[in-house]
């Protein structure tokens, strides 16, 4: 850490302490949360039958959902509620890895005879939209605010796809 940063933190009343390398017990609460988030993300990825290379989407989605989950130490409020002061709406939450039909504008289509929606895999949230991946077009990532979700169907047939 630079001296400028140390000076800035000191002026703000922030005490900066580091833990000893490879002694995770010194920061047990953060390590426990990291382990919990990792295990849940691994389960989400396994349940959705998605390739290991997509672990970052599972972890990001799990962290997003965690922020909408009530926590005992916060008097059963969600981190999102503590941060914004408002009770969060959860109607937009969706099942990670499920199939979704996303509308694609005409600018994306090769010609006008192609269907307006494409089958994709839901892989998370970004800002105020959903994140999808189109596995048949080179794993291209798309964003949309609307889609039709098939929450009970995971793309298990894709787990053996040769392009991954």
Strand content: 15-25%
Q: Helix tally?
A: 4
Q: What coarse outline follows from CA principal-axis ratios?
A: elongated
- Radius of gyration based on Cα positions: 20 Å
Give the tally of β-strands.
5
Helical amount among residues, as a percent range?
25-40%
Model regions low in confidence, pLDDT < 50 over at least 5 residues: 157-164
Give a quick account of the main beta sheet: strands, pairing sense, barrel closure.
Answer: 5 strands, antiparallel
- Classify the secondary structure makeup into a structural class: alpha+beta
Helix-strand string? HHHHEEEEE
Give, in spatial order, the strands making up the sheet with the most strands.
Answer: 4-3-2-1-5
Q: Termini distance?
A: 40 Å
Instruction: Look at the structure and give the mean pLDDT.
Output: 83
Write up this protein.
- This protein is elongated.
- The protein is an alpha+beta fold.
- A hairpin with a 5-residue loop joins strand 3 (129-134) and strand 4 (140-144).
- A five-stranded antiparallel sheet has the order 4-3-2-1-5.
- The protein is built from four helices and five strands; from the N terminus they run H-H-H-H-E-E-E-E-E.
- The longest helix is centred in the first third of the chain and has 21 residues, at 28-48.
């Amino acid at each position: 850490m630079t001296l400028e940063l140390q000076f800035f933190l000191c002026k703000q009343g922030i005490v900066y302490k580091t833990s000893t390398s490879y002694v995770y017990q010194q920061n047990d609460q953060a390590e426990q949360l990291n382990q919990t988030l990792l295990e849940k993300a691994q389960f989400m990825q396994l349940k959705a039958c998605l390739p290991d290379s997509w672990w970052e989407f599972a972890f990001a989605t799990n962290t997003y959902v965690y922020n909408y989950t009530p926590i005992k130490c916060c008097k059963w409020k969600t981190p999102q509620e503590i941060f914004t002061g408002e009770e969060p709406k959860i109607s937009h939450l969706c099942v990670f890895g499920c199939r979704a039909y996303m509308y694609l504008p005409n600018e994306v289509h090769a010609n006008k005879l192609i269907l307006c929606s494409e089958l994709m895999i839901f892989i998370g949230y970004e800002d105020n939209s959903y994140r999808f991946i189109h596995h048949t077009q080179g794993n291209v990532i798309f964003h949309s605010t609307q889609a039709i979700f098939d929450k009970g169907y995971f793309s298990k047939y894709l787990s053996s796809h040769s392009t991954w």
